[in-house]
Amino acid sequence: MGGRDSTLVLLDENGIRCDGRKVDEPRRIMIKAGGLKNADGSAYIEFGDNKILVGVFGPRDVHPKHMSNTDTGILRVRYHMEPFSVTERKNPAPSRREIEISKVIKEALEPAVMLEKFPRTAVDVFIEVLQADGGTRCAALSAASVALADAGIPMRDMVASCAAGKAADTIILDVNNEEDQAGQADMPIGYMPSLEKITLLQLDGVLTPAEYKKCVETGIHGCKIVYELQKKALNDKYFGNGEK
Amino acid sequence: MASTTVIDELKKSQIIELLEQGKRIDGRSLDEHRPLVIEINAIPKANGSARVRLGETEVICGVKIQPDRPFPDMGDKGIFICTAELLPLSHPSVETGPPGPDVIELARVVDRGIRESHMIDLSKLVILKNKSVIGVFADNVVVDYDGNLFDACSYAATAAVLSSKTPKWEMKDDVPTLVEGGESTLPTNTIPVSVTMGKIGNYIIVDPNGDEWNSMDARITITTDSNGNICALQKGGSNGFSFEEIIKCGELSVKVGATIREKLKQATKGGK
User: Which CATH number fits domain B32-268: 3.30.230.70, 2.170.130.10, 3.30.70.260, 2.170.190.11?
Assistant: First the structure.
């Protein structure tokens, strides 16, 4: 963040990034639907070196009761990082960052989930970051959508998510940890590809209005790549040669 | 503020009816912010301060400047931290206790806007590299609530920082020691301005008031710097934006931001 000086070459003269990717190439992405026995729906994602597990429960009774809404179901999201997920041990108590990310992921999923069909109930989404390497909120959101679909909860669309950003004065797709630390801007995007709606959008870093437009376009392109993999994950579980 | 009452529902249908005729509930045009009153040096004991009224929303920000240890990976930079708190006297629904997700988001979005614009030149706030740096703490308290705390807190913090005077310290016997008469303004590069827009139906409105805030489908806060570049952004609320709306909000934030930046400059001219 903030263009700190570094000996790291973010983009070489051939347009290749520090981890060998092209500017418009995402990291390796692997999404698996299901996997947890007790959860109503679950998903596991590997997004570069990020490893994230998501479990979904519900619609179920709301505790505490006063949180329930007679008009609609409610969505609750907990994003949590394991103490061993980052280089220096993280205090296991929820940090302010985790509380904010939980909130933005919840608000990114809400437009997609048909909660109004389940008044007085709650859908709980538990996100556990087992290993973090930049872009966890995007990977977590993508996996959470798959887990919700796996739980059989009616949805208007999937929410696919990917970040775009700026490093070495170039707009890049899927910002990794080094690029986030040493780069110039990071813009996570959550997108409903069929409804063409942006449901998560954050930015830190400086962009000109032209770069801003390019950055949103690049991010949406990344979301569409993730979307195909989300569909494939569900397809593999329910129609393919995956387990069960 | 999170709970909606029957009155809110009635107001919401009125707000939407008016928007269909191109009007707002308080008579503003869609891209017009509420009257902004900035009073600097409201708290003389602070190193810098501002009291900001944005319509009926009122925020006080005080800046305290003191020596601190640098962050382990930032030994050559000073520290800037901005917080925000909702006081129980600001609204009947506010209770004492640890901040909820809304308030945590508020504080982090306000902090991020100022931080990412590189408003304060932190490299000039080093007393001794890796040992001692100057910390700038901008604490916002909301004293009256009528929607859009994001912008009110952001303007208060920016005005307070612009009007701040920092004391001078030198290392003596390994302790930062105050140098008498060494006061100077904080080294700043740019003036960040956040502009929060609400989406109600298909309408985008600038600076939603309390009633509009309760009726919004989604919101977006965009911070721009003095060069008209976008430096921070946060989308919130339980709905989405189309690509065209996101671009339009970007343009609005530059346009509205420029007029507010002039007001901030006027109000803080001369400093403390």
Answer: 3.30.230.70
